[in-house]
Amino acid sequence: MKPKYLAIPYIVWMGIFVAAPVLIVVFYAFTTADGGLTLSNISEMGRFLPIFVRSFELAFVSTIICIVIGYPVAYILSREGARVQRLIIMLIMLPMWMNFLLRTYAWMSILENTGLLNSLLTALGLPALQIINTPSAVVIGMVYNFLPFMILPIYSVIVKIDKSLYEAAQDLGADTVSVFRKVVFPISLPGVLSGVMMVFVPAVSTFVISQLLGGGMVMMLGDLIDMQFLGSAYNPRLGSAIALVMMIIVILFMYVMNRFGEGEEKAVGL
Amino acid sequence: MAKELIRLSGCNVAFDGDIILDNINLCVKDKEFLTLLGPSGCGKTTTLRIIGGFLKPDSGDVYFDKVRINDVPPHKRLVNTIFQKYALFTHLNVFENVAFGLRLARTQNKKIDKHEISRRVFEMLDLVSLKGFEKRDVASLSGGQQQRVAIARALVNKPKVLLLDEPLGALDMRLRKDMQNELKQIRQAMGITFIYVTHDQEEALAMSDSVVVMEGGVIQQVGTPEDIYNEPSNAFVADFIGESNIVDGIMRSDGVVEIFGRKFKCLDGGFDPLEPVDVVIRPEDIDIVSSGKGKLTGTVTGVTFRGVMYDIIVDFHGFKWLIQTTDLCPVGTEIGIQIDPDGIHIMKKSRFSGMYGDYSSYSAEYDDIGDAELEHETDDKDSITRNA
Amino acid sequence: MTRKPGLFGRVYNGLILLFLYAPIFVLIVFSFNSTKSRSVWSGFTFDWYRSLIQDSSIMNAFYTTIIIALLSAVIATVAGTFAAVGFYNMRRRWRTPLMHINNIPMMNADIVTGVSLALLFVSLGSALRFNLGFGTLLIAHITFNIPYVVLSVMPKLRQLDSNLVDAACDLGCTWLKAFWKVVVPEIMPGIINGLIIAFTLSVDDFVISYFTAGGNVMTLPMKIFAMTRRRISPEINALSTILFLTVLILLIVINVREAKQEEKQKEKLRRSQG
Predict the structure, then answer these.
(1) Model pLDDT, residue B369
(2) Looking at residue A238, what is its pLDDT?
(3) Among B262, B192, B220, B224, which Cα is nearest to B348's?
(4) Cα–Cα distance between B114 and B116 in angstroms, integer?
(5) Where are the domains of chain B?
(6) By the CB < 8 Å criterion, does B167 face chain C?
(7) Which partners does chain B have (≥3 C-beta pairs < 8 Å)?
(8) What CA–CA distance (Å, rounded) separates C116 from A236?
(9) In chain A, pLDDT over 70 holds for what percent of residues?
(10) Are the beta carbons of C201 and C148 closer than 8 angstroms?
């Protein structure tokens, strides 16, 4: 027996449970209930343009905030001693092990109108804020849930940078700022890229966070798809079309990001 | 030397359209130390893997004791292998690594009892001077110690033939020399056949009974180390084994060759009149005389101190020769040379003519560059295994 | 350049950690609150823990989660390990496209994986007469777990000395025996790692379960989702606290063990050199 045949059961499994479902989604997106070909599911997409725009906008904003907050964390952390690094990485990963529904639920109680945040503000004599059920609440929830997914890949790239590279750069006349700008940052870009993938994809397709913190007022693509399959507007064909279009936009986005990343890598000669 | 033990007959191997072995015919005699020598990618490791049973030739036959063994899997051959980088089992300790084959023999109903296993393992560990290491993790051993474990692991099964695939490649210079001697002693103690693969010509000359020089999947020459060195069959062999000046010549008659328009006496014959030939002159066979007295006159353009002698580069009519001498000849000196007839070796023209034996770009680092090629050999061999 | 971060950097990282942990502490604190309020402290109680344990639907969801996680992790680990070995021994021409398909469930948005599997199960179910339920849930979990197992076993295979299997065969193994006696033990760390990842992912998954479990089976995350939508229920806080502490203790145990092993390894190395 040849060892490569060991993969056959899984290849069959992939055919049925990975490849076939994708094909079924495509099939559903382009057919009517009686099996005829149609483009009407796709053409209905125009109706949902505002939801597409909002989903990508919120996901984009959340991703940017994650980079802005998360990059410094990773960079600062990489300069700590080994023990501290290990401890803090543990601390950053620990919340990820708690179900994200629970973490999101926690924010419900903080952000709601009579919640902790507003109690705190009133106690300080400040005006209460209306955050829950607004896009801001959804963004806060996404940043909170996905921040570790941005910090960890960036950190893992920065921490692997050969220390002699810093010394070489300094030796060639770079000060701390230039070392960061010309060495650390370009090298860490692949980490940022994989962070973006890990944050953007779940953010654009979420329906839990938008339902819990948006209170149904901030409809996103995930909610829309959910509604077509398990919700009030039962229509799996339309749902498939929406999922398909979303997937294609995401794939295009990732492709562009990857090309951009390759260009950067070449530029710094990695 | 005794009877034939292994024979490869007309073996061909191609992979993805590249010819790896081209019609290999080879005979290994019983209790012989045979070395497959050549640069990376020459097919020496592939040949070894055919003998070990890890690779089947696309065509051609393999015989062991006159029995065709093409379809006999490795675990049924009376052959054991020492692999490049040793391939030790890191999840087992030293004792268990060595005992691995013996324990398998037991599960195959050949019955080796516990005491016998431990007796033989300790005997082997003693042979390779690893007594007291049996409980150690193999990962905690030094390169030389790991090498010894690999030797013990292969020999404990009492093979008739031991295959060694660049076994000393990962060791540093000093250790390599020690291990060369030790391997020779071990072979004498065991009295078995060794088939040894290396790209290091010094190692091949120092250890072997016979040497097989390979290049481009073809056997270039088979012979004793002395034959290979003194009577290379073509420019490739002459250049790969030791240092050689290889120049174009024309045979005037038996025993007379013309180089640079001068006639030299030599010992070779049997060529057509006026046949163009390759002439090999070893650097140590050239005598330096004063510039008027030599057959040829040239100018010294480079000197490298080598300890017992100097390597000097001499320019003859734009063609640079390497000469080894104990006399100091400073750069710029005009010198003459003489060559005794037995210092000249004539070869037929081959596809390697004109490719080797010119020292125009000679540098002292030359040998080190050759060693760096070792890595490639590992790679192409991997890709063959993967698809075997 | 390798100098330690300054005060500003440390304060910044401290604040980020505070941001990450504040909500969790709020959850924990209010799991002991005697009223249902999520913002006003009104006294200490264990009531919510009691009602959590007495809530049979929560406990059922918990059991379902554990059973699904164990089954799917074990099956995915076995299948994924075989698959990885198979892929590794293929020519690149075959391996590359197969690895791409393997990566689909990881790269794809969970919701797309969920609805596409649901569509498959519904279409197959109407033909083969089965409904969404425990079986489809298990298949879905196995499907999204295997790629992670493949990905954690693959690097261990690449680290293997390429002659290891040959060496075992040379010493008398058939290929299959070499696989069990040499390959599996050598890649064991990758297999264990894959098992742990698969189990964790399975316990944690909500989105794919939500679409593939049907109406009669519920995992714990699905139950939590239902609870958060229905009403304010401090049992969730109690549950969060228990889960958080479990994970915390597990991580501490794992880390202490790892640190000890590292010590041992260093000690060994020192002895072998000395």
Answers:
(1) 41
(2) 93
(3) B220
(4) 5
(5) 4-230+378-386, 245-355
(6) no
(7) C
(8) 10
(9) 96
(10) yes
Mean pLDDT of B13-34: 93
H/E stretch holding B300: strand B296-305
Residue B209 burial (CB count, 10 A): 15
Between positions 89 and 108 of B, the ones with CB within 8 A of C are 89-92, 100-101, 104-105, 108
User: pLDDT higher for B212 or B269?
Assistant: B212
The reply to whether CATH 1.10.760.10 applies to domain B4-230+378-386 is: no
β-bridge pairing B59-64 and B33-37: unpaired
Q: Which pLDDT score, from 0 to 100, does residue C272 have?
A: 60
Residue C147 sits at φ, ψ, to 5 deg, of: -55, -35
Nearest chain C residue to B16 by CA distance is C91
CB contact under 8 A, A225 and C111: yes
pLDDT digits (tens, 9 = 90+) for A95-122: 888 889 999 999 988 998 888 898 889 8
Q: Which two tokens stand for residue B178?
A: 């020690």
Decide if A24 and C3 are in contact by the 8 Å CB cutoff.
no
pLDDT attached to residue B110:
67
CA atoms within 13 A on the CB side of C100: 5
pLDDT at res. A268? 46
Q: Residue C165: closest CA among chain B residues belongs to which residue?
A: B87
CA–CA dist B130, B140 (Å, integer): 14
Fold agreement between B4-230+378-386 and B245-355: no
Instruction: Kindly report the three-state secondary structure assignment for every residue of C83-152.
Output: HHHHHHCCCHHHHHHHHHHHHHHHHCCHHHHHHHHHHHHHHHHHHHCCCCCHHHHHHHHHHHHHHHHHHH
Residues 6+ apart with CB under 8 A from A74: A151, A152, A154, A155, A158, A188, A191
As a whole number of Å, the end-to-end CA separation of chain A is 41
The dihedral over CA atoms of A53, A58, A59, A61, expressed in degrees to the nearest 10, equals 120
Report all structural domains of chain A as residue ranges with CATH numbers, in order of start: 47-267 (1.10.3720.10)
- From the CA atom positions of chain A, what is the Rg in Å? 23
CB C120 within 8 A of CB A20: yes
Task: Supply the mean pLDDT for chain C.
Answer: 90
The whole-number pLDDT of residue B33 equals: 95
**Domain C53-235 falls under CATH 1.10.3720.10:** yes
* Alpha carbon of residue C248 to chain centroid: 15
Residue A171 has pLDDT above 90, yes or no: no
The full set of domain ranges for chain C reads 53-235
Residues A264-269 have a mean pLDDT of 48
Å between A258 CA and nearest CA of chain C? 14
Residue A85 predicted with pLDDT over 50: yes
Structure tokens at C138: 């298990």
pLDDT digits (tens, 9 = 90+) for C172-206: 888 888 999 999 999 999 999 999 999 999 999 99
Query: Is C86 close to A4, i.e. CB distance below 8 A?
Result: yes
pLDDT on residue A150: 96
Question: Which neighbouring-strand residues pair with A217?
Answer: none
Which helix (H) or strand (E) segment is C222 a member of?
A: helix C220-230
* pLDDT digit string, tens, across residues B354-377: 888 788 766 554 444 444 444 444
What is the third-level CATH fold of B245-355?
OB fold (Dihydrolipoamide Acetyltransferase, E2P) (2.40.50)
The rounded percent of chain C whose pLDDT value lies above 70 is 95
pTM of the model: 0.82
